[in-house]
Amino acid sequence: MIYLKMWSLAVVWISSLLVSAQAQGTASLWKGNDRSGRCQYSFTVDSPKEASCPSASTGTEMEALKARLGLLEVLVARLAGGEAPGTVAGAGLQEAHSQAMRDKAQLQREKTQLQREKDRLAQQVEDLQKRVAELQKEAERLRSRPCPQAPPPSVPQHDSGLRPGAGPSLSHLASRPGRTQGDTSSLRDPSWHYGGPAYQELKAEVAEVPAPSPENPEDNTGCGELLSVGEPVSHRKADSIAGKYGVWMQDPEPEAPYGPGMLWRVDTVGSEVRQLFGYEDMQQLSRGFPTKVLLLPEAMESTGAAMYRGSLYYQRRRSRTLIRYDLASESVAARRDLPHAGFHGQFPYSWGGYTDIDFAVDEEGLWVIYSTNKAKGAIVLSQLDPHSLEVLRSWETNIRKTTVANAFMICGRLYTVASYTSPNTTVNYSFDTSTSQSKAMTVPFKNRYRYNSMVDYNLVQRKLFAWDNYHIVSYDVRLGKQQ
Prior knowledge:
Layout: H1 2-24, E1 27-33, E2 39-45, H2 55-80, H3 87-144, E3 225-229, E4 233-237, E5 246-250, E6 263-267, E7 273-279, H4 282-287, E8 292-300, E9 306-308, E10 311-315, E11 321-326, E12 331-337, E13 358-362, E14 365-370, E15 378-384, E16 391-400, E17 406-410, E18 413-417, E19 424-432, E20 437-446, E21 452-458, E22 463-468, E23 471-480
Antiparallel strand pairs: 1-2, 3-23, 4-23, 5-6, 6-7, 7-8, 9-10, 10-11, 11-12, 13-14, 14-15, 15-16, 17-18, 18-19, 19-20, 21-22, 22-23
Helix pairs in contact: 1-2
């Protein structure tokens, strides 16, 4: 459009010159081909004032006029041939503008998506904070409520044995007055069936060994081999489906601000297991009154956690990462990957539940029970540095982890339970880390509620802690020397 206007102005200018010259009667116009064969227009105009002009001035004006006419000819040729100068540059600018608009739209979409994700995470945090606040309010309400005149049947009646300022005695875990051995109907949840089809029970082969020696005072003091496991004693039934599986613990070497009677519990059903409940003593646990609720910074997997020296040890969800969570600072104090360990269903116990990595504590320290591809599924036992989680020593056993229901440590010996659903099963295997020797066993063990998902040794109480189908239970154990 610009070039058309320029050409029009040039034509008007030439026309005006011709008209002006013709008005004076001295103008002439002619056309002819130049040396290259192109058409060339020429005209002459006599000056009314000058008879002649200097040659230099005339030459300069003629050259300027020729240059202008040449430029006009080029413009006319381009317009006549359909070529529009600046078309390529204009197209490039248009394409760059279009690309910029597309990039802007993409950035806007990404911004919107990030904002939605931010809003979702903020909502999750807000929900968790509300849940913690509700639990704290409930705990305060329950603490302020007057004590009932008669305690529930499930609460052991041993309050009179507690001394003010002293730690509570847990010797009452061995028996429960007012309940017969077979009276379990009130503890069952009718909405759930035992032995769900999601897991297949695998039993290890066992062999008979000589019967335990008669009871004597030395059997119940110090370390020794496992001679017997007592009847299961139930202390509490979980309130919701989140407690079908779980883990409960007591720190054998507690650190401030928590005392030796403190008990801890985690319900492990759910995709984000992060709540850790603390109870001042067994009575508070039995009544369901937590005095502390902690929110773990990273989700826990399965029922393999343990308490030791003021820290919670657990496996991070969907990984082989071990975490030490310091209770005093309420923060992660150490983390370390367990080399080559299977996780998230590679080598679980026979009941399933992603129980690939299982912590244990006994008189000799902190242990972890797991397996690897190199061990071909056999149980691998490692002793850990409780501060850094570094592996100090390891042993490979000759029993497959997926064939046993659970495992625990007592006095440096590994023991396994044959079945998690059979009401009358056995502790069927032991491995002594001091001699690296293993042997089969047949120590009777009962799963009263037919779905035992956690078994650990508590060296303070000389008991086994277990979680059997919503029920928090314990077993007395007797140690000594096999005859």
